[in-house]
Input
Amino acid sequence: MIEVKGLRKSFTLGKRRKTRTVEAVRGVDLSVAEGEIFGFLGPNGAGKTTTARILCTLLEPDDGEAVIAGADLRKDPGAVRTKVGYVPQGGTTTDEVTAREELVLQARMYGIGKAEAIERAEQALAAFELTEFADRQCRTYSGGQRRRVDIAMGIIHEPKVLFLDEPTTGLDPQSRAHLWDEVRRLRDAGMTVFLTTHYLEEADALCDRIAIIDHGEIVALGTPTELKHGVAGDVVTVGLNGSGPKAAELLDGHDYVRKLELGEDGLRLYVDDGTTAMPQIMRVLDAGEIHFDTVELHRPSLDDVFLIKTGRSLRDK
Amino acid sequence: MKFLRDTWLVFTRQMLLVWRTPARLVIGFVQPVAYLVLFAPLLKTALAPTGAQTYADAYRVYVPGLLVVLVLLSGFFAGFGLLGELRSGVIERSRVTPVSRTALILGRAFSEVVTLMGQAVVITVVALPFGLTVHLGWLMLAYLMLALMALMACALSYAMAMLIPSPAALGPLINSVSQPLSLLSGVLLPLSLAPGWLVAIAEWNPIYWTTNGTRSLFTGNPGDVSVWAGMLIVIALAALTVTWATRMFARQVR
Ligand SMILES: Nc1ncnc2c1ncn2[C@@H]1O[C@H](COP(=O)(O)OP(=O)(O)OP(=O)(O)O)[C@@H](O)[C@H]1O
Ligand SMILES: [Mg+2]
Output
């Protein structure tokens, strides 16, 4: 449904002599199947929004090819527009108008006739449980209600592909779960969903497949399970108070420690088998007279995938 | 067809927004009406040298000038609104649809023009009790000229906003264009009171001609050269600026 090859985009900042080039997207390849929820996971500034904006025809790529729902992005952006829906990161509801007016307008912008637009707005309001306040000005809506209006606008023309840029940022856990259900329902109705996020839980729970993007490049791609299995073994985290570097020195080089990451509040050790490694680790720390607060054993998470691929954690940002 | 429909769509949405934010409209009125009530009474004596005998004469000279100031200055500010909408993502939301790019900007410009003309009508009506009398046919023609001026100012402002998409830098640019244009057009007092050298410079200012044209229509001299010259000039300028603005917009937003 989405085929992307070698997508690139850089921005030039500053004036005249003091120019600086930001390579926002540096050769992205990906392919999204029909009826899939595809997640684009990455930290701030990774290039998620830029990629989504290019694929929705809002930005012209510097290089690369993309075919979306059978339409060529470069040759026929007009055809792409009729086939994709886009819900931007910031939201776009206007304070002074009602949800119903927004939806009718958006439908009509897609060339849909007036009667049909009114009909579709009515259906979308019902589907997103907005009917109750459909005729109230958007300024009176909560963040979650606004977000639902945004998404309803994105699908009012029944696109084949929906781009959602950080759909749940700023929502409380309940609204988030609600929105996830709505996205799943769209997928089950046959829509292909491309969503960006920097929430690990969201990528893990909602997406069928994930691409992890960092500094404009895809560093890992697969289903959440595949990605986590790619990090073989277990993770042992040791909560340490200040003595992290010394502990790292002691533990480094032991053959049961495959990889070791020193964080602010402790150590992360990637080991083959946690149950045998944990006592050994504790013994080494005891022998070194290093006091530790906690020791935890867990299966690798998407954050571990990110950490291994980039050397940084997504969570602490 | 699609283009007309899209323009209408954008226009009606913008008008709805104007309607829902009456504060903006009221602020637009307050200043001209204050001038009308507090400044215009001084005019009978001030304008005596131009042959004004009565308050009606004075208002026939003053009101058209006031309307020119209103449409020009408010029109020149349209670019800020456009920048705001570009930033807030409202325009981006339209750009992911196949809606005509030209319609996005023309529909906006037309809604500004209609709003300004509404204000112009109210100001004219407010001036009536002060003794303004004007021939209805010529008044309509004067409104047409004002509407074209508003369109021109608005399009010029849009084009400048596309050229310099930063509100902080746009303000000074707009001021440096609008100030000489309005000073050298005799909007507040007719330049027939001015020394010869000033008139000689002003004759190069297109707004001088349109201001005089509007004023001639108000004072009942539709045969004056400034009427048809002003009309031709403003039609040409409106066409030029609208073309420029739509080109710039299409280039900027793709
Ligand atoms: N219009 C622009 N002009 C200049 N630089 C830009 C522009 N848009 C994005 N960038 C830069 O490109 C890089 C990628 O930005 P992008 O918005 O795609 O990140 P993101 O992954 O969506 O981040 P976030 O999670 O914060 O939304 C950033 O370094 C950003 O500063
Ligand atoms: Mg983003």
Q: What stands out?
A: DSSP finds twelve helices and no strands in chain B. Chain B touches chain A through 20 residues (CB under 8 Å). The mean pLDDT of chain B is 88.
